[in-house]
């Protein structure tokens, strides 16, 4: 395994999650199936709680909005106040959520309920954040050498903190100096990396970004950030041109601070 030097002048490493620190299948194979399998149970056991009521209320508003816009969806009248027919009301929420997920909707209502379900699953140990085994020892080593380490993922900061707070390696949140998500901008937009540098308080040239997605790598490069492309099982295949252009690593162990 060839050693690759962390670019000279780097003071901060910026890490992507999916396909970089974590198998790209984690969300698709673990997180989403968890929702589909436990949705009905979750709603039944939390139905009377304020947080769940708010989640259902938001879903109901989303459904009304969908009806107004004539989106092609199955229409449900979710009425949480009808306690006599709770099972039916839960069934309707389940149907709507499953429909939204199948349609890959990104509604706030859907995300909010999913977020609450995942939080409860992580906290109870039913889900553990997956991290490749080379990741944590490497981060500890880099930190020992004075580098700062940040996360930049399209998953929300809250979701990032759950993954690393309840991971297969335990709570490793103290290894990170900060978290960024798309509220700072899209990962394929160079401006986002300029903003991150500003927030960290350094020049883009002092940051080295690790990601599996070359569109993100390209955007980071445009902002002056150093880039390494991470090759992990199941990641998108790179073109010959991309292989030639980027420094590639298959394990964080390869990355050494030299000089
Ligand atoms: Mg990724």
TrEMBL record:
Its main location: cytoplasm. It is an enzyme of class 3 (hydrolase). Substrate binds at residues 153-154, 187. Its cofactor is Mg(2+). GO terms for molecular function: acireductone synthase activity; magnesium ion binding. Binds 1 Mg(2+) ion per subunit. Its EC number is 3.1.3.77. Mg(2+) binds at residues 16, 18, 212. Belongs to the HAD-like hydrolase superfamily. MasA/MtnC family. This is Enolase-phosphatase E1. The gene is enoph1.
């Amino acid at each position: 395994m060839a050693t690759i030097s962390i670019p000279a002048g780097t003071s901060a490493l910026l890490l992507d999650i999916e396909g970089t620190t974590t198998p790209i299948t984690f969300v698709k194979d673990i997180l989403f199936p968890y929702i589909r399998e436990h949705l009905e149970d979750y709603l039944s056991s939390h139905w009377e709680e304020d947080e769940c009521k708010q989640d259902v209320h938001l879903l109901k508003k989303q459904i009304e909005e969908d009806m107004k816009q004539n989106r092609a969806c199955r229409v449900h009248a979710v009425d949480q106040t009808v306690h006599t027919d709770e099972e039916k009301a839960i069934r309707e929420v389940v149907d709507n959520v499953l429909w939204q997920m199948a349609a890959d909707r990104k509604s706030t209502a859907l995300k909010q309920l999913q977020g609450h379900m995942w939080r409860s699953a992580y906290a109870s140990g039913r889900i553990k954040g997956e991290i490749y085994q080379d990741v944590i020892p490497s981060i500890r080593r880099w930190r020992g050498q004075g580098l700062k380490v940040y996360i930049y993922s399209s998953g929300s900061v809250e979701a990032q903190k759950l993954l690393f707070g309840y991971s297969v390696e335990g709570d490793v949140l103290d290894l990170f100096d900060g978290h960024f998500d798309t509220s700072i901008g899209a990962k394929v937009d160079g401006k986002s990396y300029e903003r991150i540098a500003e927030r960290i308080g350094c020049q883009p040239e002092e940051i080295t970004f690790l990601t599996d997605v070359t569109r993100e790598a390209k955007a980071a490069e445009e902002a002056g950030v150093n880039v390494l492309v991470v090759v992990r099982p199941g990641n998108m295949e790179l073109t010959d041109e991309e292989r030639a252009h980027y420094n590639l690593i298959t394990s964080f162990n390869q990355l050494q601070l030299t000089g």
